[in-house]
Amino acid sequence: MINLFSKRSIATFGALSLVAAAAQAADPNLELLNVDPFFYTNDRAISAGEAAMEGFGAAGSRPTKTHSLIPHLPFYTGYMETNQTYRFVTVAEQVMTMIGEGKHGLWRMQENGTVRYYLRPGQTGLPVGTDVLTTTAATINAKYITHDYALGFPLYKYPDNQVTNNALNFIDVPLNHPVFGGKYANHEAIDLPSFYCTMNGTVGYPQAAEVMDYVFRQPGAGVVGPLGKRAGLDVNENYTKVIKLDHFPDARSWVNVGQAGKNSSHLKWLAVDATRTDAEYYLVERPFFNLSYLFVIGVYNNRNNNDLQYVRPEGAYYDSLLARNLRVKTTLTHAPRFNVLNYRATDGAETRAGLQRVVGTQLFGVHHPNRAAFGGGGACPSKGGDYGDYPTPGFGAGWPTQYEEVTPLCDGVLVDIKFSANLDGGDWADPGSYLANAAKNSLTVQYNVKPGTYGKFTDPYNVRRGANNPDEAAIPAQFTLTYPSKRATTRFVPRDRIASFAVESKTKLAESAAPTKPVASPSIHNVASSGMTPVGSSCRPIPQQAL
Q1: Prediction pTM value
Q2: Integer Cα distance of 301 and 308 in angstroms
């Protein structure tokens, strides 16, 4: 592999990065996307009658609540793109939707229970031969860091650039190390692979930055399910931001099982049987070459076999599992079986097709017929580990913290990009959620109406036959309804820009957000500091030196 810094100087990287930043700054779509998230009330003012309702707001000001005093919720939208293929992300009423293309190709990867720390600028690395397990947390934190978007690409080091002058440019730290403060001490064994692909072709996903910054701040973000934990998606040092997704009812995952009696160049994808296969989906931000990218991830586990499970029986992480008496599968099933369904074209029914082994392709992706045209390689990396200097043959399919022997099986698994997520962490199927008494913090709500007798029949047909309306009633000026439960109103964590719109409307919109868990500092999308410009909007970025 060619050393990056012997081929292109840092100055060259800076110049190319500034070109990329200028191109993004000139993007006319950003102005269309970065709008008032409460634009739908921009032409509304509270009337004198509405102002008489306690807690609604002052006459003439912009409304921030419904008549039931439930806060208005912001609307965001954005998009991301690879391979000239677009995915649209929208937030409305604290529901995120992500709609893109069907049957998007994924690569398999599996975490090895470590976190890679890169040498901080200006620091001297630990000597070669240092036992990382006995190195103090203070020393590691002083000398190394997992990522820093402000530093951009130069912080990253290729696998064969680990040593300079007998000092380590990066170290791999197992999850049982004290540097993690014991937060992974009782973590499930990381024994499941995940299947992933990049969602944005531009560093910092600028056309989706506003909506995704909002999404990742909400109470529903950061929640990782049991399969996700077994894939290591809750290791924050590797996966910096996470939102769990749900498939729309007609969306599927698909497995290439090949065509019977033919070689591997003959493809056939069948839908994964969700009744016999557990699955979880995520949209995550993970540093890639120390640059901010978004990835869609699927994690699967069969209910009727352990094909997908594996832990390499060697190394400090494996030793830590043994010390905790955790039993894990230590033999890799190279081509795991999936429970799949057949589709009958005659009536559209799905029927069980049993267990079928996944067949990967030797291609980067089936939607990439001519990556060679722009220097993108085009072949599947065919092994796990650091993506590094791809398309130079010999590099892996993901990150350095992943097993080489867990190969990507490129496009052996596909996923429909048709997802949703409830950002408040709630469930619309819950009978106690989103009731009209939410803003009152009470089981009872008093209603004020114009009194009188309502519902008396006057139509001649009903008068002739002496019919009485069973719903006829004398309604008093005030009456009370009692609700079965009380819940807080739907809350949101505002982005910084919401405050400016609140001032404009003479109302602090942020007051509608109840105190929540601490919010991480805003995501920094520092394009000008990046050292890699993706080419051709491909599924994975292409390192700069490939240009």
Answers
A1: 0.87
A2: 6
